[in-house]
Amino acid sequence: xxxxxxxxxxxxxxxxxxxxxxxxxxxxVDEAYRxxxxxxxxxxxxxxxxxxxxxxxPDKRAVIKVHPCKNSDNPLTGIFxxxxxxxxxxxxxTRCRIxxxxxxxxxxDQIDAHDNSPLLDIxxxxxxxxxxxxxxxxxxxxxxxxxxxxxxxxx
Length: 155
Known about the structure:
This protein has two helices and eight strands. It has helices at 58-61, 139-154; strands spanning 16-21, 24-29, 45-51, 65-66, 77-78, 91-102, 105-108, 117-124.
């Protein structure tokens, strides 16, 4: 049995751009990928994969520990245990609610990406069966979730 060599680098191709201007957020999918959007209108949410292009420097890629949410009250934590944009590979993932789709544009309620972030991929979102049972998070994450819930209630 032969062992397949695992590549150490990959090439990614953008499939569009994320736009996030004022209080409006949308995705502009490249025309070449229009047909890949067929059926997406049947979903309420999508998973959006994009590139943290503003952090693409050797120094920022070398960061391996951060204070979550840039808050020094939170413990110094390894980046794999945070949602920090400082990463060795700058792939971001966020779940978004679709407001409407027109042509190659997907209008969203919001997105945590910067304007003009390169879009890597989109996947339809299937909620987990049985909800989020048996989910474990550190204390600082619970505080952030409560703050986010309160901010959402204020909208």
